[in-house]
Design a protein that fits this description.
This protein has three helices and 14 strands. It is mainly beta.
Length: 196
């Protein structure tokens, strides 16, 4: 009798334990889909496609699956840009008004080094800058030589900032400060819209 009772208990235990279903996410489109799960436990996490690399300009913190779309500000910044300058004019006695807009070319070219350094080529003049992962451009104060159409080059202090967007647009704001003999110190603000 004891053997039959023990066998009955063992059989009931095996029957109930074999009925246990594995719990988990049963949605095959979910990020954490469990193909072995038989019972949905409500743990499914939706799949969100996007750029997973935090140093990319289009990083998506909600994404959990890469869609290979990552773009980097440093790479976007490089290349030939069409520019639309909006610069102050200079009033110089005996010479007249000089428009820096007329002195700037229609395009600029940007080169780079792997350490996020940019070289902004405006005609034959190179201005150095830095770009961060978010596309923010910083041009530290530096001296360049420009000819504003007065017939002689002038040492100019230039500095500024800007931003590069992942849709191949951006802007940069530069301030040019310089000394003109007899006239004195001049400062020109120049906002330049850029697009590729």
């Amino acid at each position: 009798m004891k053997v039959k009772f023990s066998f009955l208990i063992l059989s009931i235990t095996l029957i109930f334990s074999s009925c246990k279903k594995e719990m988990g996410c049963i949605d095959p489109g979910a990020y954490n889909y469990n193909p072995d799960a038989q019972v949905d436990d409500g743990s499914c996490i939706p799949t969100v496609l996007g750029c997973l690399e935090s140093n990319a300009i289009n990083y998506n913190s909600d994404a959990n699956v890469s869609d290979e779309s990552c773009l980097y500000a440093f790479n976007i910044a490089q290349g030939v840009w069409n520019i639309t300058p909006d610069c102050d004019e200079i009033e110089i006695p005996l010479i007249g008004t000089i428009s820096l807009n007329d002195q700037l070319p229609e395009t600029i070219e940007v080169f780079g080094q792997e350490d996020s350094t940019l070289y902004i080529e405006i005609d034959d003049i190179s201005i150095n800058g830095q770009v961060d992962n978010s596309g923010n451009v910083t041009v530290q104060e530096q001296t360049i030589s420009l000819d504003f159409g007065m017939g002689f080059p002038t040492d100019v202090e230039v500095e500024g900032n800007g931003v590069i967007y992942f849709d191949n647009t951006g802007n940069i704001n530069l301030t040019y400060s310089f000394e003109i003999p007899i006239i004195g110190t001049q400062s020109i603000d120049c906002s330049i819209e850029m697009n590729k």
